[in-house]
Specification:
This protein is α+β, with helices and mostly antiparallel strands. Helices cover 25% and strands 46% of the residues. Residues 1-32 have low confidence and may be disordered.
């Protein structure tokens, strides 16, 4: 875990001028900071809104929920998350780490859902530098140290 966090810290830079596409509008990347791409994503995680969250998914992505990992389509990933949110109603989501390197952005956070804590890791990339899409989404049970 410590190595992962250290690896994600590499390459933090100034906010770029690229634009990010959401399902309804385009947001300049420097509006709200370098990580504004995660504003909607974290909101949808907090709400347990799998349908809106799926608008940020790549056409195919790797999804890990608890211990089950799949490479799946956007629609399949939406269904996996919908089932997870039905079984684990989200109460809150707190970002614990953000990092970027080139056209890649990473986010790690804690999701309080269904009376448990889950660590959420998201890896998103921008194609042609303008639209970020989630390539990997990992939800695992948070264990005490």
């Amino acid at each position: 875990m410590i190595l992962l966090a250290a690896a994600l810290c590499i390459g933090l830079g100034a906010a770029g001028q690229t634009k990010l596409q959401t399902s309804t509008r385009t947001i300049p990347q420097n509006q709200g900071g370098e990580f504004s791409v995660f504003a909607s994503i974290t909101k949808y995680l907090t709400l347990g809104d799998a349908a809106s969250l799926s608008s940020w998914f790549a056409d195919n992505l790797d999804v890990t929920v608890i211990s089950s990992t799949r490479n799946c389509s956007r629609k399949q990933a939406q269904e996996i998350l919908r089932s997870f949110f039905e079984a684990n109603t989200p109460r809150s989501f707190q970002v614990t780490h953000k990092a970027s390197e080139g056209n890649k952005k990473y986010l790690i956070g804690l999701l309080n859902a269904g009376g448990e804590l889950f660590q959420v890791t998201i890896y998103a990339t921008a194609s042609a530098g303008d639209t970020y899409k989630i390539q990997q989404l990992n939800i695992s049970r948070q264990t005490a140290y």
